[in-house]
Design a protein that fits this description.
The complex is a heterodimer of chains A (451) and B (230).
Chain A (H helix, E strand, L loop, with lengths): L1 H71 L8 E5 L5 E5 L11 E7 L10 E9 L2 E8 L1 H51 L19 H50 L3 H31 L8 E3 L1 H18 L3 E6 L6 E3 L1 H18 L5 E9 L2 E8 L6 H9 L13 H14 L3 E6 L4 E7 L1
Parallel strand pairs in A: 7-9
Antiparallel strand pairs in A: 1-2, 1-5, 3-4, 4-5, 6-8, 9-10, 10-12, 11-12
Helix pairs in contact in A: 1-2, 2-3, 3-4, 4-8, 5-6, 6-8
Chain B lengths: L3 E5 L3 H13 L3 E5 L2 H8 L6 E4 L8 H10 L6 E5 L4 H9 L4 E4 L4 H20 L5 E4 L2 E4 L4 E4 L2 E3 L3 H12 L5 E2 H9 L9 H14 L7 E4 L3 E4 L4
Parallel strand pairs in B: 1-2, 1-3, 3-4, 4-5
Antiparallel strand pairs in B: 6-7, 7-8, 8-9, 10-12, 11-12
Helix pairs in contact in B: 2-3
The chains are: A alpha+beta (451), B alpha/beta (230).
Chain lengths: 451, 230
């Protein structure tokens, strides 16, 4: 739950901060811009008015100017400030404070309090002050209007900021809820895996389309990883189980034979009995070597691969086994249907896998009188297969045989076959291929497909 | 003069077991327990064979072998290791070892391999390339790839010829099943069934049927030997 709160809070906070920040920047810009525009307009108006009045003064002197000032205000315009001051700052004519509070100096444009008393002391105005002879011409306008505008804009903007804040919090919560929801399904699966349940998978939101979102991609990778872990765990369990099971019988035989050998008085017979012990220990050693080989094959790197022509590989191993099969009274056929170009293979492990397949066929398919080692090219890659004409494995049991790579109960009497199958499976996986069983009608086809 | 063998092995019981067996077989044995001492002793160049473990204190066995080879010393090296996978063997041979045997091992296997290695270095030193091998009345022409016994031609297949050539090159010595699998078929795994025995059986029938004396003998618990006398 801690994860959820933290992540949600962070995402919500982030979206709020981002919304606020972008709004503040926008609002600040608008505020500043409207204020600057309004002041600039005021500036222009006042300067134009002042220029016009000075032109009047130049042509008609003070009386004409005083006359112009009285008529300069348009009807209804009560805020325009127009006045003539004498050299001491006393108003001579116009609409303005009686005494001017700003210094008497030539001023192109300025914003200040014009008067020291009454309404003039409470509001700022933009003004120009120009000398006309000994007197001064003041043109200006209070900023009330602009300020009122500013305040209206500020209120609107404050409301906008508040709304965007609410919106940010809202989207943040929704977003956080969504992300947390997606993450929680993944976390739940990981937690389950951590507690040992490797069967659960994350369900994808857009399972049907190829382009799922980032969460789907994460979930897909996770599912693939869990699948691999589950498979490896299952294999490890099978190998361990079958190792423990398979070791019991040779060890038991070893123990019995040792006991018997100890009791034999005749030295020649005892020697023969001891020789039998060696055979049993060799069998156990061979099984252990195979277990190591299986576990190692999981971590074999590609640099162990060499370029091998599959046809040569098949012919070599076939040549090794042909006399064995023939001595056992079986027909042994090597069928090379295709001669693919050499490809990188782990020659030893591939040979060992094929040798296990042939060995299995010779042991379990001996009743069928014929074993075929076949190399062909299928749709999915190069197919190495061993066919026998023995009893085969019923279709229902085949999945079981592959799933546990284990031996079927009917084959429990032959030692080591479980490990043999596990090794074949491991070799197939090492080469990115797969191992499958099929019906030879009658008999069994054991097939190793390497892409 | 007895041959000198250096054993570099940190496991005292294995070292004692090997040393005792080799001493009984008539070799002069020297032992040391770590890789650096092993390298030091080996660089004297007085040994006919070095038997080395892989996991040694102070200097790893493979590093020791590489260093020996880098120093220009060509004494045959046999690695005796519990690292038993195919890739482990390849690593050992790549490092410059001449043979690789996995623990646990049978003494017969070790002794056969030691004999093969020691004799091989003798042969390369004393004999030029031979074109004919003969064991008693059996003659093998390596150029024409023909086999005759008592003047009578025996037809053999290509693999059988290689097998016979290997046995003849080690005439009088024990050759084990795994040695044949490694050298003739280049397989370093144990196929489990008696595959080598079947091949030997066929070769033996060809060599011995119709002739009075056996020539390819089974050495119980070890392997086979091609020799005039059993």
């Amino acid at each position: 739950m801690k994860l959820r709160l933290t992540i949600s809070a962070r995402i919500a906070l982030l979206s709020v901060v981002l919304a606020l920040l972008s709004n503040l920047v926008l609002v600040g810009f608008i505020w500043k811009q409207t204020s600057a525009d309004a002041v600039a307009a005021l500036h222009r108006e006042i300067v134009e008015q002042a220029d016009a009045l000075r032109a009047v003064w130049r042509t008609g002197a003070l009386p004409a100017l005083a006359d112009a000032i009285t008529h300069a205000r348009e009807p209804g315009d009560v805020t325009l400030v127009l006045a003539i001051y004498d050299s001491r700052g006393h108003r001579m004519a116009g609409y303005a404070p009686r005494h001017l509070a700003v210094p008497l100096a030539d001023t192109p444009f300025r914003i200040a309090m014009l008067g020291g008393e009454g309404v003039w002391a409470s509001r700022e105005a933009g003004y120009t002050l120009h000398p006309i002879g000994d007197d001064w011409l003041l043109v200006g306008r209070p900023l009330d209007l602009i300020e009122a505008q500013q305040i209206a804009i500020e209120r609107a903007l404050a409301l906008a900021v508040f709304l965007s804040l609410m919106l940010g919090v809202g989207t943040g919560l929704v977003l956080a809820h969504y992300v947390a929801g997606r993450l929680n399904t993944i976390v739940a699966v990981i937690d389950a895996a951590g507690e040992g349940d490797l069967t659960r998978r994350v369900s994808l939101v857009r399972a049907d389309s190829d382009e799922g979102d980032a969460f789907d991609r994460l979930a897909e990778r996770l599912n693939a990883m869990l699948g691999k872990i589950e498979q490896l765990m299952a294999e490890l369990r099978v190998v361990t189980d079958s190792l423990a099971h398979d070791l019991r019988s040779p060890l038991a035989r070893l123990r019995t034979k040792t006991e018997q050998a100890v009791l034999i008085a005749d030295p020649h017979q005892r020697e023969a009995a001891l020789g039998g012990l060696l055979v049993e220990t060799d069998l156990i050693m061979r099984m252990l070597t195979m277990v190591i080989e299986i576990s190692r094959s999981e971590s074999v790197t590609r640099d162990r691969f060499t370029l091998v022509a599959p046809a040569d590989l098949v012919e070599e191993i076939g040549e090794l086994y042909a006399p064995v099969a023939e001595d056992a009274g079986l027909r042994f056929l090597i069928e090379v249907e295709d001669r693919p170009a050499p490809l990188p293979l782990h020659r030893e492990l591939m040979s060992q896998a094929l040798s296990n397949l042939i060995d299995n066929a010779l042991k379990h398919g001996a009743s069928g009188a014929q074993v075929t080692l076949r190399l062909s090219r299928g749709l999915e890659g190069i197919v190495f297969q061993v066919e026998d004409r023995g009893p085969g494995i019923a279709a229902a049991d085949r999945a079981q045989a592959l799933k546990r790579f284990g031996r079927l109960d009917t084959a429990r009497t032959t030692p080591g076959a479980g490990l043999g199958m596990a090794l074949i499976e491991a070799v197939a996986r090492l080469h990115g291929g797969r191992f499958e069983l099929a019906d030879n009608a009658p008999g069994l086809i054991a097939r190793l497909v390497i892409p | 003069m007895s041959r000198k063998i250096l054993i570099v092995e940190d496991d005292a019981s294995t070292a004692a077991y090997v040393a005792k067996g080799l001493a009984e077989a008539g070799y002069a044995v020297e032992q040391c327990g770590d890789g650096r001492d092993g390298l030091f002793l080996a660089s004297e160049g007085i040994f006919d064979l070095i038997i080395a473990d892989r996991m040694l204190p102070r200097l790893d066995g493979l590093a020791m072998v590489s260093a020996i080879r880098a120093a220009g010393i060509s004494t045959p090296v046999l690695i005796l290791s519990a690292l038993a996978t195919v890739d482990d063997r390849v690593d050992g041979l790549k490092a410059g070892a001449d043979d690789y045997l996995c623990k646990p091992f049978s003494f017969a296997e070790l002794s056969a391999r030691i004999e093969a290695l020691v004799r091989r270095s003798d042969r390369t030193a004393s004999e030029p390339t031979r074109t004919k091998l003969s064991v008693g009345d059996l003659e093998i022409d390596l150029l024409a790839r023909t086999v005759t016994r008592a003047g009578k031609i025996i037809p053999v297949g290509a693999r059988e010829f290689n097998l016979l050539e290997f046995l003849a090159r080690h005439a009088g010595q024990v050759v084990t099943r795994t040695m044949m699998l490694e050298k003739i078929w280049n397989y370093h795994f144990d196929p489990g069934s008696n595959v080598v025995d079947v091949h030997i059986g066929r070769l033996r029938r060809k060599l011995e049927e119709g002739f009075g004396t056996p020539i390819l003998h089974t050495v119980r618990g070890a392997g086979y030997r091609l020799a005039v006398e059993g």
